[in-house]
Amino acid sequence: xxxxxxxxxxxxxxxxxxxxxxxxxxxxxxxxxxxxxxxxxxxxxxxxxxxxxxxxxxxxxxxxxxxxxxxxxxxxxxxxxxxxxxxxxxxxxxxxxxxxxxxxxxxxxxxxxxxxxxxxxxxxxxxxxxxxxxxxxxxxxxxxxxxxxxxxxxxxxxxxxxxxxxxxxxxxxxxxxxxxxxxxxxxxxxxxxx
Amino acid sequence: xxxxxxxxxxxxxxxxxxxxxxxxxxxxxxxxxxxxxxxxxxxxxxxxxxxxxxxxxxxxxxxxxxxxxxxxxxxxxxxxxxxxxxxxxxxxxxxxxxxxxxxxxxxxxxxxxxxxxxxxxxxxxxxxxxxxxxxxxxxxxxxxxxxxxxxxxxxxxxxxxxxxxxxxxxxxxxxxxxxxxxxxxxxxxxxxxxxxxxxxxxxxxxxxxxxxxxxxxxxxxxxxxxxxxxxxxxxxxxxxxxxxxxxxxxxxxxxxxxxxxxxxxxxxxxxxxxxxxxxxxxxxxxxxxxxxxxxxxxxxxxxxxxxxxxxxxxxxxxxxxxxxxxxxxxxxxx
Lengths: 194, 334
Prior knowledge:
Chain A has a five-stranded mixed β-sheet with strand order 2-1-5-3-4, sandwiched between helices. Helices cover 35% and strands 13% of the residues of chain A. The longest helix of chain A has 15 residues, at 174-188. Chain A has 194 residues and is of the alpha+beta class. By secondary structure, chain B is α+β, with helices and mostly antiparallel strands. Chain B contains 13 helices and twelve strands. In chain B, the strands form three sheets. Chain B has a five-stranded antiparallel β-sheet. Chain B has a four-stranded antiparallel β-sheet with strand order 9-10-11-12, with helices on both faces. A three-stranded parallel β-sheet of chain B has the order 1-3-2, covered by helices on one side. In chain B, strand 2, helix 2 and strand 3 form a beta-alpha-beta unit. In chain B, helix 12 (292-302) crosses helix 13. The longest helix of chain B has 19 residues, at 314-332. The radius of gyration of chain B is 19 Å and the shape is globular. Chain B starts with a strand and ends with a helix.
């Protein structure tokens, strides 16, 4: 674990805004749920104190409790990749994570990768290469692509295709997705995990 | 999903003490360890698994890959599949394991899934996944819908009249060919189980898949030192090029000297109800020349007892060709 973790680039830069985000309406609503447990999550550099049902997946927590709706629910079974987020710099399927198990971890969603006016190079490349059609899978594709930049992966298109296989695109934008990722890898020469 | 209590174990003794109170460590366990969750959370969403208590074992000190004094390798139970696959020693000395892991699932899932979790990976049989259908593995005595139903992807080796569910793991196949040992700590102490004895044939109790009892916690897996001069390889055949379970796969670990095979370890995936080591194929190969005719004899021996179902007869020939091709590839460069 150490080698990948250590080399996973700080996507966010070193943000450390520790103030607990105030989302009183959510807390009040959830306090009424029987069996809710206190959970503290760090998402995109912000700390959130929540009361959630232990069954809540990280994906549902992000979308329904934190209103970070960039991460999408496709299959809800780890098969489509639309829910991909980073946990401590590593990409994971948030639909198969129980949110309460990720306390103390640094969670990054598409909202933390880039914003309009301050896009991540992968986001810019997706725009430049028209790497999407309907856009539903795109946030997951970008989260996978950003993580891939720090993973051990060879230079060929075939390796990109293999390592992007956990992200399904029903529109079939695959060719342009590969082109977008390759353009960033070739121009930035990002550091690679060993 | 049924509700549950989530607890976090900070030391192994605590985890074992909690889980020792479980009704079983097999299908239907009311207390479950959870690590990556890739399999368990999926099955909880489907109500195939309905534990009332989960014990989070991610923080136990079993996250290291270490060299053993005898030249072997010790792999912690919660080492992630991606970390194991990319570990330099695994790539160098146990290539078959790295290849098997990287052929399985997706990068996201491999970042989550653990060594012990992969050992315990459940079948993908669609009737096991569907609580509206009969399934002896999920609900003993309810019948097997697969035998008379959609069984194209299911097992042809080790089946019974009650269950034909295939073991879907790639890692387990490589671990079988590498003769891994599974180390377990439980309420009565520690024990070690060779991987060949760890998974059970379905027989008339397909709900029992492993030798694990309540409270048994897998702590690590050990691999013996690599056999000197060996070459190993994992070949996986499937319906899609990536992110798909095997229709047939072969893990081969071969030592050859001057064109003669001096040592052979062979295991098949996608075709067995458990990871399928084939001593029959190994016997046909050992002491013989590395030729296509010998490979074919080994493949015939490995599939001799195959029992195809209505839709998966093709797997008999596919598995043979898979093994023959794997042996060709691994001996080409030997």
